[in-house]
Design goal:
mainly alpha; two-stranded antiparallel sheet; 3-methyladenine DNA glycosylase
């Protein structure tokens, strides 16, 4: 597949260096804690839940269809999914589509359908509460903000409508039947909606799985979104998140609900903007190859 754009060496090197600087700043805390053995349940989540190395996050990709001039001797020429073209290098779009075409179609289809769907903003982050419902032992060692009985009462007095399988699968046995939906891997494309915090964090996951097809700035924006959403996810949880630097959002109160929905809507907008950017980048870069492979 021929290049549709060309970047002179000084241009792409400048973009690459800016990307590396930004990535280093974003992951500084995580990398420092790796050396000391410390952990931060809020900030580290993006790294522990999504198996994508900080060193890979640091790699800048221009996206498919972009030739980087005078880069054949650069280390990226030996990266997986890149190929040399005379003295230039570019993403080997054909090889990537051949190897992962089915996955690319699933991811872009899921992102597009989620972006087009109406967001739901009445869950109030109760998925985290359902994960500790009627349980003596919890996933995190941090104490609950309320007593166990009060926490259980919050769950029982609200409508639980979690639409995300990777949150629902951690519900306690007593909480699962209370959910008005039954999310699964199979119905994920039908249930995924932009108001869901976990779906918003997962935009980062989908970006990492699309590898070099996603431009570097989009990937880092997805990482930042996931990290920011995790703050609200834990702030609105039943845990006392103040020790993690997250001031609690008391969703059991009217004021807390209003604050949660306000921030939830902002994340939905950011998530949809990123979904659209990813789909646009992939369509522009490998759209014809996907259509050809699917014909």
């Amino acid at each position: 597949m021929p290049a549709t754009a060309r970047l002179p060496r000084h241009d792409w090197r400048e973009r690459e260096q800016a990307h590396q600087t930004r990535a280093d700043e974003l992951t500084r805390g995580w990398r420092e804690r790796q050396l000391t053995g410390e952990s931060h349940p809020v900030d580290d989540f993006v790294h522990t839940y999504y198996p994508f190395k900080a060193s890979h996050l640091r790699r800048w990709h221009p996206g498919a269809g972009v030739a980087l001039e005078d880069s054949a001797e650069d280390e990226r020429a030996d990266w997986r999914w890149y190929r040399r073209d005379a003295n230039d290098t570019m993403v080997d779009a054909e090889a990537f589509v051949e190897a992962r075409g089915r996955s690319i179609r699933f991811i872009t289809g899921l992102l597009a359908s989620t972006s087009a769907r109406q967001g739901q903003f009445g869950c109030f982050g109760l998925h985290e509460w359902a994960m500790v419902y009627r349980q003596g032992e919890h996933r995190h060692a941090t104490p609950l903000r309320l007593t166990q009985a009060q926490t259980d009462e919050v769950v029982e007095s609200h409508r639980i409508g979690c639409s995300h399988f990777d949150a629902f699968r951690f519900f306690t046995p007593d909480a699962a039947p209370l959910n008005t939906l039954t999310p699964s891997r199979e119905n994920q494309p039908e249930l995924e909606q932009p108001g869901c915090l976990h779906a918003g964090m997962d935009v980062y996951k989908w970006a990492t799985k699309l590898g070099p097809l996603v431009p570097g700035d989009v990937l880092l924006d997805c990482y930042e979104l996931a990290r920011d959403i995790r703050q609200l996810d834990m702030a609105a949880s039943p845990y006392d998140a103040t020790t993690w630097g997250a001031e609690p959002v008391a969703i059991e109160t009217p004021e807390g609900k209003a604050e949660y929905v306000r921030r939830q809507r902002e994340f939905a907008q950011r998530g949809n903007a990123l979904r659209d950017r990813i789909v646009a980048a992939v369509t522009a870069g490998v759209g014809p190859l996907l259509a050809e492979a699917n014909s």
